[in-house]
Write a structure and sequence with these properties.
Elements: E1 2-7, E2 11-17, E3 23-30, E4 42-43, H1 45-62, E5 72-77, E6 82-85, E7 96-97, H2 105-113, H3 117-124, H4 134-143, H5 147-152, E8 157-160, H6 161-170, E9 174-176, H7 177-180, E10 186-187, E11 192-193, H8 195-201, E12 210-212, E13 215-220, E14 232-238, H9 239-246, E15 255-259, E16 263-270, E17 281-287, H10 299-304, E18 309-317, H11 321-331, H12 340-345, E19 354-356, E20 374-376, H13 384-410, E21 417-421, H14 427-437, E22 441-444, H15 449-461, H16 467-473, E23 476-480, H17 486-509
Parallel strand pairs: 1-5, 5-14, 9-12, 15-21, 21-22
Antiparallel strand pairs: 1-2, 2-3, 4-7, 6-8, 10-11, 13-14, 15-16, 16-18, 17-18, 19-20, 22-23
């Protein structure tokens, strides 16, 4: 069996999969969210470890795992969040600073004004934004008394959440290439920490983790850390990259969308770091090390280069499920998210009503923080069904915008979109997504694709599975084929483009 620790932003889920990748056990707990000031978001790293360790034990018990049955452990994690700890005793030296934390927004503006964004873009594939880890580490070094000296002397180390869990599990200070690529400090083409960026932010290289493959025997767990199990930690990946692998998107041109509060669209672009278009990010999808035991595990490595590395384009869409929550909690025109499906289906057409849910600006591919949420096309005949339908349509339109931008950057047309997340239960939305995207939308049989992807990586790492097994073992639960006429698709998307332009113009006038 393989234990997958899915360490999210609000809680920890642990799943146990057997040798057929069937789910055998699970457990989940939430942990505290800490808000020291407006715009600041922190987690207690010690609490995260305690919760993860406890939930791992509960999942292993739920699976009735016997001694010797556990083959490996895997970690998938919330990305960009930064921890700092003393490597001698493993004690945190400050609360973890979470990805959504905005305390370094001013610093990012300073760096942008000084002309450093092209360097960041070229080396890391990212944009200069406080969302990423680099300026969070700089802030800790500048604001925690004595921390910079400790870091220079090797008495303080930094890491993303995967590094923290790996250290507590094994005692090793490691990360994987997918997580390193989200720090704004990693040269994704060269596969190393970028010296220019470390110098720019004055971050000691010795304080950063050793970057390892996403799938290989990375370290051995300490029995006292994992309820008596001494097994390989063999898989690590950021949550969205893990979901891409969990959806078996192992070939260039394969992509997935995770529908949550926002949405993350990732497109596998193969062995060469892509040039991200405006509003898109380039990231390491995963890196496969030398697999244990089975030659078949090298199949992907042979296709994506000697390092076994695959890259992806990523689009971050800020508001999708959150727009439905706003209908429920803000406008109070629905009682639950499920109400939107029959409301949307009650109309034969959107009657020209569009909702641009730029409630926190627009994400990829526009990356416009000033855009304002707008509803356009209302008449006396418009009702809550029109607004509900426009909200669901907006989720699909934003995905189309992201995919088209990716296709322009990657020159790799999307063949089908594999999907996961809460919105996939809405059959009307999934059909509309297929219609306006023009390719099939496919739901996986196992919904927990993030944890499954981490488990797959660990299985490949220890030779339990080959990448061919991952591809052939993936099963669909439902498939939505496009059935909309091309002219109708073009008409709807043109109306959406006009609505987006209006939302962006409104934001520009308000600046």
């Amino acid at each position: 069996m393989i234990l997958a620790i899915d360490q999210g932003t609000t809680g920890t889920t642990c799943l146990v999969f057997d040798e057929r990748a069937e789910l055998r056990g699970r457990a989940h707990r939430e942990f505290r969210q800490i808000f020291p000031r407006p715009g600041w978001v922190e987690h207690d790293a010690g609490e995260i470890w305690e919760v993860a360790q406890a939930v791992a034990g509960e999942a292993l018990s739920d699976a009735r795992t016997r001694p010797g049955e556990l083959a490996a452990v895997a970690v998938a994690n919330q990305r960009e969040t930064v921890c700092v700890w003393d490597p001698a005793d493993g004690e945190p030296l400050h609360n973890a600073i979470v990805s959504q934390d905005r305390r370094t927004a001013g610093r990012c503006e300073e760096l942008r004004a000084a002309g450093y964004e092209p360097l960041v873009r070229e080396r890391t594939g990212l944009v200069l934004d406080p969302y990423f880890s680099g300026t969070k580490i700089e802030w800790l070094l500048n604001n925690v008394a004595g921390l910079r000296q400790r870091a220079r002397e090797g008495r303080a180390v930094f890491g993303t959440i995967d590094s923290w869990l790996a250290f507590k599990l094994t005692g090793e200070h490691i990360t994987d290439a997918s997580n390193a690529s989200r720090t704004m400090l990693y040269d994704i083409a060269a596969g190393r920490w970028a010296p220019e960026l470390l110098e720019l932010l004055d971050i000691p290289a010795r304080a950063l983790a050793r970057v390892c493959p996403s799938a290989s025997v990375l370290a051995q767990t300490r029995p006292e850390a994992l309820h008596g199990h001494a097994v390989p930690l063999a898989g690590i990946a950021g949550d969205q990259q893990a979901a891409l692998f969990g959806q078996a998107c192992v070939e260039p041109g394969m992509g997935k969308n995770t529908y949550g509060t926002g949405s993350f669209v990732l497109l596998n672009t193969g062995p060469v770091a892509p040039e991200p278009g405006p509003g898109l990010l380039a990231t390491v999808a995963w890196e496969l090390g030398a697999p244990a035991g089975r030659a078949g595990g090298t199949a992907l490595a042979e296709r994506v280069g000697t390092a076994g590395r695959a890259y992806a384009l990523e689009a971050s869409i800020f508001v999708t499920g959150a727009a439905v929550q706003w209908l429920r909690d803000g406008l109070q025109i629905i009682e639950s998210a499920a109400d939107t499906e029959p409301l949307a289906a009650s109309l034969e057409d959107n009657d020209g009503v569009y909702f641009v849910p730029a409630l926190t600006g627009l994400g990829s591919p526009y990356w416009d923080p000033h855009a304002r949420g707008t509803i356009v096309g209302l008449t006396r005949g418009s009702g809550r069904a029109h607004i509900a339908r426009a909200t669901l349509e907006a989720i699909a339109y934003q995905t189309v915008d992201a995919v088209r931008a990716m296709e322009r950057s990657a020159c790799e047309p999307l063949r089908e979109l594999r999907v996961d997340g809460g919105a996939t239960v809405n059959g009307w939305l999934m059909q509309f997504q297929a219609d306006v995207l023009g390719v099939p939308v496919v739901l996986a049989r196992i919904a927990e694709t993030t944890a499954l992807g981490a488990a797959y990586l660990a299985g490949v790492g220890v030779g339990l599975w080959s990448v061919a097994d991952v591809r052939s073992g993936w099963r669909e639960r439902a498939r939505y084929e496009p059935r909309m006429a091309a002219a109708e698709r073009a008409r709807l998307l043109a109306g959406w483009s006009d609505a987006v332009a209006g939302a962006r113009n409104l934001g520009a006038r308000g600046r």
